[in-house]
C-alpha cells in the first residue's frame, strides 16, 4: 500500500494533461499511487491516460461512462485512495520534483498538521510567470484578466482554531490549498466537495477547524491560469460543470457555502465559546459584504 495517494480528476484535458502527469511521475518521492478518473472525455484524454498507464504501474486509470460532474468526480478519486496521505491534482497544474518530498517531511514531523502546501507561482498557457502588480499584488493573465495571487504564507497555522477559521473564511480568496497534501483520515471527517461552485473553500474551512496548515516556502507548485479555467465560466456554466445531473440549486452558492460552514462548525468539536467566536466572525463578514454591495451596487 503506498504512503501517498494522488487523485487527478479530468475532463477534456488533452492540451495540458501529459505535462501535468509528467511532473507528478517525476517526483523525487516515489511511494505513491496516481488515481486518474476521466469524466467521459470526448477529446484525446483517454488515449493520453492509457499511454501513461502503460509506462508506469503507479497509475490507476478509471473512466466514467458519463460525465458525473466536477464535484462528484473529485470525490470519486478520493474514495479510491489507499494512502495515509492524499493530494488532489489538476490536469493543468505543475509540480516541481521535490513537491511531495518537502510536504511529506513537514507532515511527518508535525502530527498537528492536517494540510501542507508550498508557495505558488502563477503561470500562463506556456508556463510563463504571470505579470504581477507590485502595488496591490494582483496578477494579469495573457488576455489581461485580473487574477488574485497566492494566500498569505502563515494562513491557518495558529494553534487557535478560531483564528484558523478566520484565516480561511475571511482572508482566503483563491483556494490553492485544495491541492495541498492532506491527512486522509482527517479528510474523511469532512463533507468533501458538495455540488456547488465554491465548496472547495468550505472544505478548507472544515479542515482548518480540525488542524493546522503549513506552507513550504519554496515555490514548488505552478498554478496555470488560462482561458479554459472554471474562473471564466458564467454562473449557469459553473453549476453545470460542478454537477450536470443536479437541478439548479434553490439557494445561491454563497448560501450553500454558509450552510456547509455552519454544518462543519456543528461537527467540529469546538467549545461553545469557540463556536460563538466563529459565528461572530461570520456575522461581521456578512455585514461587511452587505455594506460593500450597497456602496458598489454595480459589482456582483
Automatic annotation (TrEMBL):
SUPFAM superfamilies according to UniProt: Nucleotide-diphospho-sugar transferases
Residue ranges, annotated region (Disordered): 141-160
Residue ranges annotated for the Glycosyltransferase 2-like domain, each copy included: 5-134
Naturally occurring in which organism (per UniProt): Rhodocista pekingensis
Record-linked Pfam families: Glycos_transf_2
Domain of life: Bacteria
Protein name: Glycosyltransferase family 2 protein
